[in-house]
Amino acid sequence: MDASSSISITDVPGVSCASGWIGIKRDERPDAALFICDHEAVFAGVFTTNQFRSACVESSLMRLHGGKRVRAVLVTSGNANAGTGLAGRADTELLAAGVAKEIGCQADEVIVLHTGVIGVPLHAERLTPRLSALIQSAGSSRVAGMEAATAMMTTDTFPKTSVHTMQTAKGSFVIGGVAKGAGMIHPRLATMLSVIITNVSIHPVALQKALHQAAKTSFNAISVDGDTSPNDSVILLATGHDEDVLTEESPEYEVFIEELTNVCQDLAKMIVKDGEGATKFIEIAVTGGASDDDVERIAHAVSTSTLVKTAFYGEDFNPGRIISAIGRAGAHMDIEQLQVKISEHMVFADGACTPVDEQIAKEVMSQAEIMVAINLGVGDCAGTYFTCDLTHDYVQINSEYTT
Amino acid sequence: MDASSSISITDVPGVSCASGWIGIKRDERPDAALFICDHEAVFAGVFTTNQFRSACVESSLMRLHGGKRVRAVLVTSGNANAGTGLAGRADTELLAAGVAKEIGCQADEVIVLHTGVIGVPLHAERLTPRLSALIQSAGSSRVAGMEAATAMMTTDTFPKTSVHTMQTAKGSFVIGGVAKGAGMIHPRLATMLSVIITNVSIHPVALQKALHQAAKTSFNAISVDGDTSPNDSVILLATGHDEDVLTEESPEYEVFIEELTNVCQDLAKMIVKDGEGATKFIEIAVTGGASDDDVERIAHAVSTSTLVKTAFYGEDFNPGRIISAIGRAGAHMDIEQLQVKISEHMVFADGACTPVDEQIAKEVMSQAEIMVAINLGVGDCAGTYFTCDLTHDYVQINSEYTT
């Protein structure tokens, strides 16, 4: 790891990181990453829409709704602590209390995120004795940040970090984030986790609103296999302590949202590119929709169609599968108005498929990044989504025994 | 093909079949199957819900809404005649007229179904000269029936036929059907086609209602990959000419629906078992739903989850993936009331996963047929659905070049 040339979440002033093994994974690979703020931070979060929520999501929501400040985020991997009932809630709180004790804060100032096997008791009392060593290893070097991003990984093949800065009249501020992707753990369930920290001073309501807006066009616009886990979480911390906080009315607020969106989109695209077994990155741009719901329906149908995704894997120029997915999406449309392009080449217009030269089709499909542009032609709503292909490696990774 | 021991759609009195090559497939493999009734029949149909409809679906719907009688059904494979605009409509009618001329009826008494590549002109004028030879080969032997069922096949690995009889006060009647499954043609798009014929005398309104009811628990309760094609069609013909027709009030009507449902379920299950690359047949039984919509949402989420389907392929006993799919289905539920069983073994109850002995889990997953029973515990609605696993062969079949 060439730390000197890397970016790191520790580029955000006042952030230190730790990582190591606390006893979840049998083979003693790192299974814990800790992100610590020097000062207490306001925080925002977006979470899975799955009705099964891990104990950690319940615990994070309790802190969010209680308006708590946060000093640290602990991410553990190997056990999702989902489907574990009340004992699971106690386990999450035990870990929070363990971290709080070591860094000198309250348990409800520590956020805990889990990822891993569902339905297996966590038994946190086995883990807390190792928290002290974990926290003593914390540092603010780029290496410490990169190691924490790496410790979050499961079947991810590379750590995911993005850092953007914003210039304002008050000076320069940093937004840094890490994520783990839709990989399977030992190999049970895809979980997407992200921790983002900024040194901006901002009102918590404005922070939550900014995260919702940024997530809409990033984490909520990607699909690897259409599944959402009980654990999916994005946590955003703002550590600034200026009395003059950013609000929705501040002139810099839009700039903040823009840079936050950049961080989220960087991380979301990395998750798709590192999707299990993926060989192609596919951008689906929907325009002309009658409603935002319709735009999402179209993007969802196309991005989750196994027929579309296997065609991309096989480099098979196959507009019929895309058009069929559009047709079953249940969106309002007029076939005579519909236009579909694959990487700038029109494949459907005026109610019928249009022929594309075989050599051009072959060339388009050989690219690692492919754009599908769908203009419904019946309204002004639009959105861009990201997905990957469905490959032999995906089936291999996800069909292996857990034992 | 051991015709003597086979059942055949020609077991329905007054039905003859033909099959052969009419010029669609380049390699001169059979690409046309014809089902002829000695007498005109009343007919019913259920069709794809995809907003892109093949010209043949438009043409069939026109005949259905016009209350037409039917003498023959022509099924062609190799070209879906979808995404082909008005020229496509003309092509379908040209084939209907060609068949009508040969058997001596009106063009609107012939139904045409297509399956194959989307967006390529059919040029039916190339095909009509070969219809005469096709029709001259027609016969009412079991071999003729089996050959027609075989000519409909695309990536299907076996022909699909079911015959049931019903005993009534008026005598014995036969219901016979054939189907082609969710295979890809040359390999573009999954299409499910079925032709069912009975010698019952029945009012067309009662016939349509019976088909809707039978399809609900058969063709509309199966999923191979969650896609629906522009061509999916089920055509049901009733050739009986008794003046005393079956109506919804007739005492035999429920028996008719029951036997029709048996034929439809037989064919639907064969389609799933012959799903591309499938190695496991999975029955998903949902009970205790607050609404029929909720039952369908749950069944759809579980049966289309690539994580669930790859786990079954890998014989990985993985309740977490099923529970996560249930959780994202958007159905009304209460996690405390939910119970999930895999082949009779409880895996989720009282709000948490329940442990299953490793040896038992291995035994369950090694079976070719697996039952997932989901009791939502919040209502009285129920339904049973059928799906298959997602395998390397599925990816292989669907990622190959079309060229």
CATH topology of the largest domain in chain A: L-amino peptidase D-ALA esterase/amidase
CATH class of the largest domain in chain A: Alpha Beta
* Helix segment tally of chain A: 11
From the 3D coordinates, which CATH architecture of the largest domain in chain A would you assign?
Answer: 4-Layer Sandwich
Q: How far from one another are the termini of chain A?
A: 32 Å
Pfam family, one (chains A, B): ArgJ
Family (chains A, B): Belongs to the ArgJ family.
GO cellular component, one term (chains A, B): cytoplasm
Enzyme class (chains A, B): transferase
Describe the structure.
- Two copies of one chain form a homodimer.
- Chain A has 403 residues and is of the alpha+beta class.
- Chain A folds into two domains: 270 residues, L-amino peptidase D-ALA esterase/amidase; 119 residues, Ubiquitin-like (UB roll) (Roll), CATH 3.10.20.
- In chain A, the strands form two sheets. In chain A, strands 1, 2, 3, 4, 5, 6, 7 and 9 form an eight-stranded mixed β-sheet that branches. Chain A has a seven-stranded mixed β-sheet with strand order 8-15-10-14-11-12-13, sandwiched between helices.
- In chain A, strand 5 and strand 6 form a beta hairpin.
- The first copy, chain A, is globular.
- The N terminus of chain A is likely disordered.
- At the A-B interface, helix 8, helix 9, strand 13 and helix 11 of A face helix 8, helix 9, strand 13 and helix 11 of B.
- Chains A, B: It is an enzyme of class 2 (transferase).
- Chains A, B: Its EC number is 2.3.1.35, 2.3.1.1.
- Chains A, B: Belongs to the ArgJ family.
